[in-house]
Write a structure and sequence with these properties.
8 strands, alpha+beta, 2 helices, 2,3-Dihydroxybiphenyl 1,2-Dioxygenase, domain 1, eight-stranded mixed β-sheet, 41% strand
Length: 117
C-alpha cells in the first residue's frame, strides 16, 4: 500500500479575492480549477497548490494541509483504525472523490484522497 502521489497542498484563505490577486497577479500562478469563493486550485509546475475558504479548511488545522492521493481509501481507513488513529473528518466530494482528514503525531493535519473512477 503505497501513496500514489502528493495530490495537493492547500492553505486557508480568509479573503479569497485578495489571495487570488497575490497568487495570480503577483506570483503568476494560473488557476486550473475554481469553485467560486470556496476553492481555487493552481498548477504549480506539475504539483497542485490551492486556496481553501474557511468552509473547506479542516477545523483545528493551522498552516498548509498536504493531500495524499491513494487508490485504496477504505483499506487505509481500516489501517488507521487498527493503529488507533482517529479520523478527524471525512467528506464525499461527489464526482471528485472522497477524503478523510487525520492528524499526525506532531499535530499536523493531512488528508487522504481517493479519486472516483
Amino acid at each position: 500500500m503505497t501513496i500514489k502521489k502528493l495530490q495537493n497542498v492547500y492553505v486557508k484563505a480568509t479573503d479569497i479575492r485578495a489571495s487570488r490577486h497575490f497568487y495570480e497577479a503577483v506570483l503568476g500562478l494560473v488557476p486550473k480549477f475554481a469553485d467560486g469563493e470556496r476553492w481555487v486550485q493552481y498548477d504549480a509546475g506539475g504539483a497542485n497548490f490551492a486556496l481553501a475558504s474557511d468552509g473547506e479548511y479542516p477545523e483545528g488545522a493551522a498552516g498548509a494541509v498536504a493531500v495524499f492521493e491513494v487508490t485504496d481509501l477504505d483499506t487505509r481507513i481500516e489501517r488507521l483504525a487498527d493503529a488507533g488513529i482517529a479520523i478527524a473528518a471525512s467528506a464525499d466530494m461527489g464526482s471528485h472523490g472522497r477524503t478523510v482528514t487525520l492528524v499526525d503525531p506532531a499535530g499536523q493535519y493531512l488528508q487522504l484522497f481517493q479519486r472516483n473512477a
